[in-house]
Amino acid sequence: MFKATDDISQLVLIEIGPRFVMNPIKSFEGSMGGEALWQNEKYVGPSKIRSKKYESFHRKRTDKQLAKHYKDAVEKEGKDPDGYLDAAFDDESD
After folding, report:
1. From CA 6, how far away is CA 20, in angstroms rounded?
2. Do the domain assignments include residue 23?
3. Is 74 part of a structural domain of the chain?
4. CA atoms within 13 A on the CB side of 44
5. Taking CA atoms, which of 17, 39, 43, 51 is between 20 and 30 Å from 60?
């Protein structure tokens, strides 16, 4: 333990754990409630973050499923179901 009488050049500081960061969300009039005096506008709750992650995952999964169904339809019918490539294989010459 460092004392006031010790040599300051011998002082060594060591970080012993993760940093503690407070991210205030709201300040209330009372100690545990009351009217909200201040609110952090940049705060995003954990449920919102989870919801956005799930939404992104769901959208990607849906897109993959649609692409798979489209590929299966093309392979089953042997042609493009939308028909946008039909003009590329016309035998008519311009």
Report:
1. 29
2. no
3. yes
4. 5
5. 43
What per-residue confidence (pLDDT) applies to 64? 95
- Alpha helix segments (H runs only) across 7-90: 46-77
- For residue 34, give both structure tokens: 């009351």
Match 């449920």 to its residue by tokens.
47
Q: Tens digits of per-residue pLDDT, 58-81?
A: 999 999 999 998 888 877 877 666
The phi and psi torsions of 12 (rounded to 5 degrees) equal -130, 125
The whole-number average pLDDT for the span 49-64 is: 94
Q: State the pLDDT at residue 43.
A: 92
b/e map 38-50, b = 16+ CB within 10 Å: eeeeeeeeeeeee
